[in-house]
Design a protein that fits this description.
- The complex is a heterodimer.
- In chain A, helix 3 crosses helix 4 (142-155).
- Chain A has helices at residues 48-56, 95-107, 113-126, 142-155, 172-189, 200-206, 235-238, 242-258, 268-287; strands spanning 6-17, 20-32, 37-41, 63-68, 71-72, 80-83, 160-164, 192-197, 209-213, 221-226.
- In chain A, the strands form 2 sheets. A 6-stranded mixed sheet of chain A has the order 6-7-8-3-9-10, with helices on both faces.
- Chain A is built from 9 helices and 10 strands.
- Chain A starts with 5 loop residues before the first strand and ends with a helix.
- By secondary structure, chain A is an alpha/beta fold.
- Chain B folds into 2 domains: 7-56; 122-327, Orthogonal Bundle (MetI-like fold), CATH 1.10.3720.10.
- Chain B has helices spanning 7-23, 26-53, 67-105, 122-153, 155-168, 173-187, 197-223, 227-235, 240-278, 283-293, 298-327, and strands at 58-59, 62-63.
- In chain B, a hairpin with a 2-residue loop joins strand 1 (58-59) and strand 2.
- Classes of the chains: A alpha/beta, B mainly alpha.
- The interface between A and B is medium-sized, with 27 and 20 residues.
- Chain B: This is ABC transmembrane type-1 domain-containing protein.
Chain lengths: 288, 331
């Protein structure tokens, strides 16, 4: 294995709360190769989003660090484009203008005007949204908006594409459709992708590798599974492929046996507020 | 009235109504009724009540004016305006003729051009008031929107300034006015002033009272930008100005406009009070002068002004609403 493309070493993330320090991540190590599609899976509150935000540069690890192509990450940047759960398109801009905002910012100096225009158009076509270029986000469905969010991220030509539960807010059919599109695009562009998900099927179907995280607080990498399934993958034929089923069971076992959430046993009142306040402070820090 | 309607006219109205009802479906009719008919009914009931109640109220200037007197006075005021215009035109032509005569005798002579010295009429006062309120409102906007953006972007700033805003917000224009008057007279000293002092006084008072809603709404709108959008801006590494221009400002436009509409309403209300007290030209002064005048027509004329003030305030709000619909993305 050559030098890793992206490397997280000894990452610790502690949030200051009124009740004292809350350690969300503790000594998390992760190496990702170029072109790898990696899923982060784990129970809610285990710090998946925190990992993603650290790679994105939206959060700063309190210990340890993150290196991309030999450079330490300490601020956000378009080479680590993020696809947000709720598309995060500017509601006052059209679909085209939303992608344009990103392209304008990233390629203002390196692309001519016509070139930029073609590039925006190309990315919209990639996600099958060219027909709605002049619509506002409020006028299209959630699935369509998420496609545009992906187009915007791809248009930045990121070296790592970060996706924070990109299909979590969509209905099952739309989600399947978008997963297929994402697989096609990934086949063509061979991007490095880190995707957070709750969905076991989604993780196994899309990923080259699944990182299963232990429950927080002080979460770390629990198991790291390589998914050796032939691409292109087809959800229907895979459904009763024994290898696929085995991987799937592997993840399920991790989530529901080894890392079963003890929420039902521990009194809820004690555990929940600590988590939510930590989540909130993460949001607040991210805002600044 | 019924004696006046000829059978032919009646048939015409019936035909028109029938054509109208034929064209409209039931739902449309109900909608039109709600939007047009009910307000009309409300206004009619009000006018009727006014007509009956007014003669019951006796003042030292006669009974309170009913709708008929007010209508008559509004015609009267317009007539006075027309007459004044005519005289003003005559004055100008006379002056020009005289000046031409002087110049013909002596091409080097300095001719004086004087403005028409007649008193401003009611429409003139309306125009003055509109100019003053718009000037004050524009000044308030120019101050409040950038300040609101700064406060909204910076928590520390906001916390430091918030008590000041809360204290100054409820101050009445009448309290500001003496201070503004004194400061304007002391600082605005010029031999050839571009603006009247009275104009500046009322304009600044309007600004001081009307900038708060815009300031507060802008800062709230700016502080409430969706955190995801802020993250997008950070990922794109937008510069501070681009961030404000492309993300913060458009995102808070709806809130800013809500503030602006409230501000304009307050500005118009404050202006009348300021003009009244400061004796600066405008509708407020018109009302005050009529009150001092104390003729039997005064109350009707004041009532005309009251209705005009209300109507103009309503129109201003409608215009703001129209602009908001053009500009804001959520409309």
């Amino acid at each position: 294995m050559t030098k890793p493309h992206l490397e997280l070493t000894g990452v610790e993330m502690a949030f200051e709360t009124p009740k004292g320090s809350f350690v969300a991540l503790d000594n998390l190590n992760l190496k990702i190769r170029k072109g790898e599609f990696v899923s982060l899976i784990g129970h809610s509150g285990c710090g998946k989003s925190t990992v993603l935000n650290i790679v994105a540069g939206l959060l700063q690890a309190t210990k340890g660090g993150c290196i991309l192509d030999g450079h330490e990450i300490n601020s956000p940047g378009p080479e680590r484009a993020v696809v947000f759960q709720n598309h995060a398109l500017m509601p006052w801009l059209t679909v085209y203008e939303n992608v344009e905002l990103a392209v304008q910012q990233v390629f203002r100096k390196t692309m001519a005007r016509q070139e930029r225009r073609d590039w925006i158009q190309h990315n919209l076509e990639l996600v099958n949204m060219a027909h709605a270029a002049n619509k506002r986000p409020g006028e299209i469905s959630g699935g369509m908006a998420q496609r545009v969010g992906i187009a915007r991220a791809l248009a930045m030509k990121p070296s790592v594409l970060l996706m924070d539960e990109p299909f979590g807010a969509l209905d099952a059919l739309t989600r399947a459709q978008l997963q297929d599109s994402l697989m096609d695009i990934q086949q063509d562009l061979n991007n490095t992708v880190i995707m957070i998900t709750h969905d076991v099927d989604e993780a196994v179907l899309l990923s080259d590798r699944i990182i299963m995280m232990t429950n927080g607080p002080a979460a770390a990498v629990g198991e790291d599974v390589h998914i050796d399934l032939q691409r292109p993958r087809n959800r229907v034929t895979l459904a009763d492929d024994p290898v696929y089923v085995c991987y799937r069971q592997n993840v399920l076992r991790f989530l529901y046996e080894k890392q079963r959430k003890l929420e039902s046993i521990a009194p809820r009142r004690v555990e929940k507020p600590a988590e939510t306040s930590a989540g909130k402070s993460a949001r607040l820090t991210a805002e600044r | 009235m019924s004696t006046l309607t000829t059978p032919r006219a009646e048939a015409g109205i019936r035909g028109w109504l029938k054509a109208l009802t034929d064209r409209l479906t039931g739902i449309e009719l109900a909608q039109a009724g709600k939007q047009l008919l009910l307000p009309m009914v409300g206004i009619l009931i009000f006018v009727g009540f006014w007509h009956l109640a007014a003669p019951q109220v006796n003042t030292s200037l006669g009974t309170f004016p009913g709708p008929a007197q007010v209508w008559e006075q509004s015609g009267q005021l317009w007539q006075e305006h027309a007459n004044q215009r005519e005289r003003a035109d005559k004055f100008v032509t006379m002056q020009e003729e005289r000046n031409a005569g002087i110049l013909a005798d002596n091409p080097d002579a300095k001719v004086k051009i004087r403005g028409y010295p007649g008193a401003p009429t009611f429409p003139d006062q309306v125009v003055t008031s509109l100019i003053t309120v718009l000037a004050g409102f524009v000044l308030a906007t120019v101050i409040a929107v950038p300040l609101g953006i700064v406060f909204g972007l910076n928590h520390y700033f906001q916390a430091a300034v918030n008590p000041l805003i809360q204290i100054f917000k409820p101050v009445s224009p009448l309290a500001w006015l003496p201070l503004v008057t004194m400061v304007v007279s002391a600082t605005y000293v010029s031999d050839d002033p571009m603006f009247e002092k009275s104009f500046l006084t009322s304009m600044i008072t309007v600004t001081l009272c009307s900038l708060w809603p815009t300031l507060i709404n802008t800062s709230v709108g700016v502080a409430a930008v969706n955190p995801d959008l802020l993250n997008v801006s950070r990922v794109l590494r937008l510069s501070f100005w681009t961030h404000v221009r492309k993300v913060v400002l458009p995102s808070s436009i709806p809130m800013i406009f809500t503030g602006l509409r409230v501000s304009l309403g307050i500005a118009w209300m404050v202006l009348i009070a300021a003009e009244m007290l400061a004796q600066s030209p405008g509708l407020g002064k018109f009302v005050w002068d009529e009150f001092q005048n104390g003729s039997s027509e005064s109350l009707s004329r004041i009532m005309v002004a009251v209705l005009a003030i209300g109507f103009i305030g309503f129109l201003l709000d409608r215009i703001m609403l129209m602009i908001q619909k053009k500009v804001a993305w959520n409309e």
